[in-house]
Specification:
Distance between the termini: 19 Å
Strand order of the largest sheet: 2-1-5-4-3-6-7
Largest sheet: 7 strands, mixed
Number of helices: 5
Order of helices and strands: HEEEHEHEHEEH
Radius of gyration: 15 Å
Strand content: 15-25%
Length: about 170
């Protein structure tokens, strides 16, 4: 078990750069607080509505080219493995119309929310974007990845499966 955890840690270390704490941030290993989320592509929800199934949260902004670059792979990941975990996007844009224009370009089908008050941004620790947070079915932060990634690459899919304890 220890060897598997070390292997998983090394896998994710290769995926992310060091991070600096944000005030109010829930660190890896911590449990996300209940938080209202304003719907951007659908209705509003509570973050806790996603408990019971692993969750991948992607924090993005319309002015972030790397955010757009990774959206296609997040969409493919969501389509292929959506029965095993949920994928949601959180825009930190000030203007919903800019965020919606970004999503028109990105062509994603998973739900997106907008964080006008920066409560989610601060809780997730999004001091840089894109940020992708892996959350287990109980709401515990498993891992945070800063920067754009190819989310449906075989290596990344394998690391996600290990993080969530799923067969992929």
């Amino acid at each position: 078990m220890k060897k598997a955890l070390v292997s998983l840690a090394l896998c994710f270390a290769a995926l992310s750069a060091p991070a600096f704490a944000t005030p109010g941030e829930v660190p890896e290993g911590g449990t996300l607080r209940q938080m209202p989320m304003q719907g951007l592509t659908g209705g509003s929800k509570l973050l806790g509505d996603y408990r019971g199934k692993p969750l991948i949260i992607n924090v993005w902004a319309s002015y972030c080219p790397p955010c757009l670059a990774e959206m296609g792979s997040l969409e493919r990941l969501s389509k292929r493995y959506g029965k095993q975990f949920n994928v949601i996007g959180i825009s930190i844009d000030d203007y919903p119309e800019r965020a919606l224009a970004f999503l028109t370009q990105a062509k994603t089908s998973f739900p997106h929310f907008i964080d006008h008050k920066l409560a989610l941004e601060n809780m997730l620790g999004a001091n840089r974007i894109p940020l992708t947070v892996l959350v287990d079915a109980d709401g515990k932060v498993v891992h945070k990845v800063f920067g754009a990634k190819e989310w449906d690459s075989p290596e990344t899919v394998e690391a996600i499966g290990k993080a969530f304890g799923l067969r992929m």
